[in-house]
Structures are given as C-alpha cells and as structure tokens.
Amino acid sequence: MSKCDYCVFYNYDDFTGEYVCDANIDEDDIERMMYKGTKDCPFFRDGDEYKTVRHQI
Q1: Rounded Cα gap, residues 5 and 25, in angstroms
Q2: What's the rounded Cα separation, in Å, for the pair 38 and 30?
Q3: What mean pLDDT, rounded, does the chain reach?
Q4: Are 8 and 25 in contact (CB under 8 A)?
Q5: Cα dist. 21→7, 25, 45 in Å?
Q6: What digits encode the pLDDT tens for the residues 9-32?
Q7: Using CA of residue 24, residue 9, residue 43, residue 47, what is the dihedral sign?
Q8: What is the DSSP letter of 25?
Q9: Which of 17, 18, 23, 38 fits as disulfide partner to 43, beta carbons 3.0 to 4.6 Å?
Q10: Distance between CA 20 and CA 38 in Å, rounded?
C-alpha cells in the first residue's frame, strides 16, 4: 500500500474502474514533483476523520 491509499483525494472512478488522485494539481506542480525528485506528495491530506478526535482526548 502506498501513502496515496490513505489520502482524501484518492477516489474510485466508476468510468475507468480505477482509483485516481482528484487533487487540484496544475502542470507547474506536476513538473516540480517530477524534476525535483519529491518523494512525498505535497497535496497529501490524511483521510483519517478521527485524527482530530483522538488529538482532543
């Protein structure tokens, strides 16, 4: 499993039958990620909806 599996932007596309990233990424951002060798996606957001609740306890 990759970190993308837990991202809020990683959704199932009924049309293609595959999971896709729905983050709003433009061409400049894609180029920066490809050529700068970024390992972690800068658009990753944890899809754990209980994270805030656990933090408050």
Answers
A1: 18
A2: 10
A3: 78
A4: no
A5: 9, 9, 12
A6: 889 999 999 998 888 888 888 787
A7: positive
A8: -
A9: 23
A10: 19
